[in-house]
Amino acid sequence: MRNPRVDTTIFGATSLLTLALGGVTPDCFAAPVPVAEGEAEAVVGIWHNADRTVRLQLGADWSYQGRVEGRDRPAQGTYRPAGSGLVLRDRTGLRTPVTVAGDVLEMAGHQLFRV
After folding, report:
1. Is there a domain that residue 115 lies in?
2. May I ask which residue range the UniProt record assigns to the signal sequence (predicted)?
3. Disulfide engineering: 47 pairs with which of 54, 56, 77, 95, CB 3.0-4.6 Å?
4. What residue numbers bound the domain in which 89 lies?
5. Does residue 2 lie in a domain region?
């Protein structure tokens, strides 16, 4: 009797977000969009989705920490302005786009609101 080979691949939250969004090309970092005085501070702070299962903390030093309920590892890295939003880049180099729409951040199908 042959034993079927079971191939199990485990993805972290950042990997899944990148796959779901189709990835972000490296060219979005080639020419960062200038941020006017006061605009960077507009996104700094802690953001949650409505049921508080997704948390994103954006620092004034262009670093971020993110947490998704049910995931063991928090995402950490840096962020930069890109187009009409931001791009998060974690420690492994994976990138996640974030749209800034007024007082709401939209990321991977989640709407995040300032705490």
Report:
1. yes
2. 1-30
3. 56
4. 44-115
5. no
Q: What contacts 108, CB < 8 A, 6 or more positions away?
A: 17, 20, 21, 96
Q: Lowest mean pLDDT: which of 35-39, 41-45, 52-56? A: 35-39
The tokens of 96 are what?
Answer: 């996640």
3-state helix/strand/coil string of the chain: CCCCCCCCCCCCHHHHHHHHHCCCCHHHHCCCCCCCCCHHHHHCEEEECCCCCEEEEECCCCEEEEEECCCCCCEEEEEEEECCEEEEEECCCCEEEEEEECCEEEECCEEEEEC
At which residue do the structure tokens 């200038």 appear?
A: 34
Count of domains forming the chain:
1
| Letter string b/e over residues 22-51, b meaning 16 or more CB atoms within 10 A of that residue's CB | eebeeebeeeeeeeeeeeeeebeeebbbee
